[in-house]
Write a structure and sequence with these properties.
Shape: elongated
Oligomer: single chain
Largest sheet: none
Mean pLDDT: 92
Order of helices and strands: HH
Number of helices: 2
Number of strands: 0
Low-confidence stretches: none
């Protein structure tokens, strides 16, 4: 299950990065901001999973 969550976090980070860069490319600041938010949420999810791994050992 942890691998699924890690994969979801990575996917969310990637989606956010793509959306952020697309927003920048077309000059849409709202889209870029939403992308940054998704990317940050993915970072937080990944950090949570890493902390779970630390405490499992």
């Amino acid at each position: 299950m942890a691998k699924d969550e890690k994969a979801r976090a990575k996917a969310q980070q990637l989606k956010g990065k793509v959306q952020k860069e697309a927003g920048r490319a077309v000059g849409n600041e709202r889209m870029a901001a939403k992308g940054r938010a998704k990317e940050a949420e993915g970072d937080a999810r990944q950090a949570k999973e890493k902390m779970k791994d630390v405490f499992k050992r």
